[in-house]
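Cont'd.
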Amino acid sequence: MTEAVAKEAVPGDPDKGFDGFSFLARFAPLIFLLLLMTVFAVLEPRFVSSINLFNVMRQVSITGLLAIGMTFVILTAGIDLSVGSLLAFAGLVAAAVAKGGMQDRFTVGDAAIGYGWPLALLAAIGVGVAGGYLQGLAITKLRVPPFVVTLGGMSAFRGAALLFAAGGPISGFQPDFSWWGQGRILTVPVPVIIFLVAALAAHVVLRYMRYGRRVYAVGGNREAARLAGLNVNGIICSVYVIMGLFVGLGAFVLAARLNSAEAVAGTGYELTVIASVVIGGTSLFGGAGSIFGTVIGTILIGVLLNGLVLMNVSSYVQQIIIGVIIVLAVAFDTFAKSRRRKA
Amino acid sequence: MLLRMTGIAKSFPGVRALDSVDFEVGEAEIHAFIGENGAGKSTLLKILSGALAPDGGAIHFGGKDVVFASPKDAQASGIVTIYQEFSLAPDMTVAENVFIGREPGSKLFVSRSRLEAQTLALARRIGLERSPRALVRDLSVAEQQLVEIARALSMKSRLIVMDEPTSALSRTEIEKLFAIIRSLKRDGITTIFVTHRLEEVFEICDRYTVLRDGKHVGHGTVAQASLDGIIRLMVGRELGLLTRREGTYATGEVALAAVGISRRRKSSDASAIELHGVSLAVHKGEILGIAGLVGAGRTETARAIMGADRVDSGRILVDDKPVTISSPRDAIRHGIGLVPEDRKQQALFLELAVRTNLSIASHDRISTLGIFISGSKEDALVEEYRKLLNIRMSSGDQIVGNLSGGNQQKVVLARWLALRPKVLIVDEPTRGIDVGAKVEVHNLLFQMAASGIAIIVVSSELPEILALSDRIVMMREGRVSGEISRVDATQERLMTLMTLGSRRAD
């Protein structure tokens, strides 16, 4: 019924001129990030040292990888709470492969026998993809809401990790494995490079590939997507597989960085990851968002935590701040949406 | 007079829904409230029930002037409306539903015994033979309706409005309902009876009021009225700027045939519309209109052909060959497209760009290496259809939600045209768009038919059906109730076929 009030857009006419609000809404995460960095730089000069900035980037690269996968999931209006648990499980399996079994898992340094990092990487990704596919099937075939399926997965994968680890970590890999977490290329930490390359790839998929278009369409209006002939269930299932792929990759990098895998790894990651995506402007209602936003959101959280640590703010207070920011980010999204509806 | 509404006016953006309507209903009478789809009946009833505030006019009820700010106000005055879609909580008991929000007992605790005793008394009065403890989910549609009536009675109402109460009932159930309405009348309760079935008006109602295009066009005593007279009041809408298709259409080959499509209601969805052996065929280059009142099964037929809803039985033939269609993907593969009834809910990705909306079904045409979208090919596609359909937009990157309704509808049409379909089904082609854009959309449909596409048009507006169609199929209660060629079609004949069918057998 809004047709009569809706203004006809004329070709060639700039769209109602400059809309300050929508500009702000689009770049809010970036503006907020720059603001935050300025504040920290003024309050704490150590913050701007290049060592510290690389540190921040290295710290966020694991959750950043997960956040890239999570962007696909949230674009379809889904959610995945199981990422932390699946990360631990995949990391343990990769570690066991790298060590050639479970018998020598405590012998740090002496890791001659094993299958090497390529097979370990493959194992991690295999576990991640399988876990994601299982959850995707449960969501599309059994029609259980993603929240419930992945809440179940969060518990089940953690259990699997604990069972697999049988009470202890698996540590001590060969140097060419550890390089993926600890190495540097021209002073840039390898995990940071992996994160940025993965982000670029995901950006290309979402922006320039048919598949990406379909992910947005399914999240934007599921019924319209179905009537337009899209395989809606297939697409929904696939985003959980992609999430699993990034979980596997993240698990591999984390194990390499810590030179160890353990069953309690990744605890609470789901919150940080979802926060990164949402703060980056991806709508929990689906259909809107970008990888660029997710990268900014990821760095923003990293900067925030790093700055707070440098300023000796306790980790308990940090948790409170993260929680409040998530709620505010979603409130902002809802507000922006209702404004667009009225426009 | 029990109820006197005078000068009721209501406008929505771009639409004058009610234009100074007067409506009078007497004490203890059964009053038929009649009008075509979109005549303004629902709007008036929503104002009467307090769900909508009028822009102007006064309501006089039970001897005093009243203003209803909410449905609660109207109910407190003694007016209860029973909608077609029941407002019952399926997992609660009959008794809990009857007294929902008004449970007997103390402030904190519900008195179960009083709740159930009072419900039982009401149930006896209207012949509901169910325990007050039965779950509403387990009741038939007719029984659920009785629960609604019991709730109305429990509120001591003096006026009960029933919106199409018979549309989902069998003949015996209808007779039982009529007996209840008559017994309510003996108790002094007035019923406003909204129906599309004119024979029911003559069967049970005392007086009638007819609405057309938001105006009161006639009222009187049923005993002195004729069927033809009432139909003449209902129709007679102006064609306005709409023009009929020029020239005569020569019958081509059958492009699509639907044979015996049936779909039964499931217990989980008591108000779903059934289809009973619907068969129709559309030829190449022909525009076939499907006319019928709300709930006749028009949209359901369209969705069944498209594979959007499951069906229980029936066959689809494309170019004389039987095809299996179990999803919209299958339908598209066989060259069928559907412009759905509700543009915003079912067709558009409102937050996404025009280009995404336009090209979503034809990625094959604009991809490189099979997986990437070629920006230049997509630009060319958007530009091609922008010109062809005269879509007014600033660029392909404009958010589709910011276009006017007419241009949004053109984007949806372009999406299907880009697929070069054999058959295009268009459900409500011009709902909610202004007259100028309406004419444009009609001309586009004419052009598409002229290019050989078989088109099926579903519309609630008789003038639109008459303007567009080469041939018209009428539907009523999930069945095809008649077929008429454009030469023989008039609004009166269509309305007669739509409202008077063969009686439903048990």
